[in-house]
Structures are given as structure tokens and as C-alpha cells.
UniProtKB/TrEMBL annotation:
Residues 138-160 are annotated as: Disordered. InterPro entries: DUF1499. The chain crosses the membrane at residues 12-35, 55-77, 84-105. This is DUF1499 domain-containing protein. The lineage of its organism: Bacteria, Pseudomonadati, Pseudomonadota, Alphaproteobacteria, Maricaulales. It comes from the Bacteria.
């Protein structure tokens, strides 16, 4: 009986430890990459994708075992019931392990549903182009910004064709506002969204910016172009490109979608 209670105490302690370590580990992986403590490949690849699932399985298994021992000893060993903290530790370990594994599975499923692309443009026939200075800042190891040469790695089909199927709502934004007013509104929206604007030109009606993710510090570069229409109004086009990775999990399309919605609201467009 004494041995069983000792084993129970050890398992509960380990379950509680796993419930604490697992979320801290994932937070460290993401924040460490963002603040340059290690490369994103180590943070995402090694810490999150390789080691992370083992921690989650350990938390789930220890939590389940602790819960079984708590129930068994409560039934068969009278007067030696564990405190509320032991039950919390067991349930927390189960919740964190199962929740983390479910989230990882949902991300993997999402990745399988969308094409592995990372360069999204409202104008696929004539996408906005980045300046040489921004391309240089992206670094030699960054993804190419040569839109015309890109294809879907899975099917080999041209990027514009794949994007049209995956994100049919990503389209040029036609507005009734004058070009300069549309440009200024677009620039204001970019800053509201937290983008870091690096190049802006009212003369050319274009600007460039970079969006940095909270987790892992991934940087995606954006270029926005405003074109005057002959019969009045303007067309606003935007392009968002990830610096690293093959699939963006829909992040660039979501960014352009948010930009479009806010721009229309700001200009009072339907």
C-alpha cells in the first residue's frame, strides 16, 4: 500500500511538471525565435515539431496514469485520498497534452487542405513589384519574389492558377476615391494593422511594408500599389510574400483580406 501511494505521488508530481513544462517549452520556442535567441528552424523545426509532440504525449500519458491512480486509491484505500491539487495536476496534464496534440493535428490538416504557396497578390496578371532595396533586406536565403516563375510544389501548376482556386476572393480593390486619397487611406490602414512601412512614395502611389508574426518572428513583405482609373476612382493592389517557408498556411491571403476589408471601411466603400 505504501509503495502504491509513493508511486502515485511521483506520477502526480511528474504530471504536474509536464503540465507546466509543455506550454513553457512551446512559448520559449516561438519567442526565442522571434527575439533572435536561436534560428527559426531550431525553434519551429526542432523544438516545436520534433521535441514538442513528445512533451505533449508525455503530459497526456502521465496525466491519464495519475488520474487512474487517484481514482483507484480513492476507491480501495480508505482515508488516504489525495488533495485537490493532485486532481488538478492530473486533469491539467491531460488537458494540455490532448489540447496540444489536437491543435497540432488541426494545423497539419489545414496544411493539407491548401496549396503550399507563400506569394499572394490581388493582381496575378501584373503583380506589384518590390524595390531592389527591399529585396536586398530580405536576404540571400529568402524566398524569391519572382512571381512569374513560381509554381505549386505539389502539382507544378502556375502560381496564379493555384491562387485563383484557393483564394478566389483575393482581388484588386476598386474604389471611387481619388488615387491620392486611396493611397493615403491604404498607408494608414497598413500602419493600423501593425505593418512596418519601409518605403512610401506619393508620387508613385506605392509603399512597401513588413509584417512580423508574434510567434517565431516570421517576416512577410508587402507592397501596395494604387493605379488611377481613366473614368475616375482608383484600383488598389497589394502583394504579400513570406520570407521563409514553403506554405504560409493561408497567412498572406488572410493579411490581404484584412487589409482590403479595412480599406473599404475607411473609404466608406461597399
Amino acid at each position: 500500500m505504501g509503495i502504491l501511494l509513493t508511486i502515485r505521488a511521483i506520477i502526480i508530481w511528474l504530471a504536474g511538471l509536464a503540465a507546466v513544462i509543455a506550454p513553457v517549452w512551446f512559448a520559449a520556442a516561438g519567442l526565442g525565435s522571434r527575439f533572435g535567441l536561436w534560428d527559426w528552424r531550431f525553434g519551429l523545426g526542432t523544438m516545436t515539431r520534433e521535441i514538442g509532440p513528445n512533451l505533449l504525449f508525455a503530459a497526456l500519458g502521465l496525466g491519464a496514469l495519475a488520474l487512474v491512480l487517484l481514482i483507484a486509491t480513492a476507491i480501495f484505500i480508505k482515508g488516504r485520498r489525495a488533495g485537490a491539487g493532485s486532481w488538478v495536476a492530473a486533469v491539467a496534464a491531460i488537458a494540455i497534452g490532448a489540447g496540444g496534440l489536437w491543435y497540432a493535428a488541426s494545423v497539419a490538416a489545414r496544411a493539407g487542405e491548401i496549396p503550399p504557396i507563400h506569394d499572394i497578390s490581388t493582381d496575378t496578371a501584373n503583380p506589384p513589384q518590390f524595390t531592389a532595396s527591399l529585396v536586398a533586406r530580405r536576404g540571400e536565403d529568402a524566398n524569391s519574389v519572382d512571381y512569374e516563375s513560381k509554381t505549386d510544389p505539389r502539382s507544378g501548376r502556375p502560381l496564379p492558377e493555384v491562387q485563383a482556386e484557393a483564394y478566389p476572393d483575393i482581388q484588386p480593390v476598386s474604389v471611387s476615391a481619388e488615387p491620392l486619397a486611396a493611397y493615403r487611406a491604404a498607408l494608414a490602414v497598413a500602419r493600423e494593422l501593425g505593418w512596418t512601412v519601409s518605403t512610401e512614395s506619393e508620387r508613385e502611389l506605392m509603399f512597401e511594408a513588413t509584417a512580423t508574426t508574434f510567434w517565431y518572428g516570421f517576416r512577410d513583405d508587402i507592397v501596395v500599389r494604387v493605379t488611377a482609373l481613366t473614368d475616375g476612382g482608383a484600383v488598389v493592389d497589394a502583394r504579400s510574400v513570406s520570407r521563409v517557408g514553403v506554405s504560409d498556411l493561408g497567412a498572406n491571403a488572410a493579411r490581404l483580406r484584412a487589409f482590403t476589408e479595412r480599406l473599404r471601411d475607411r473609404l466608406g466603400e461597399d
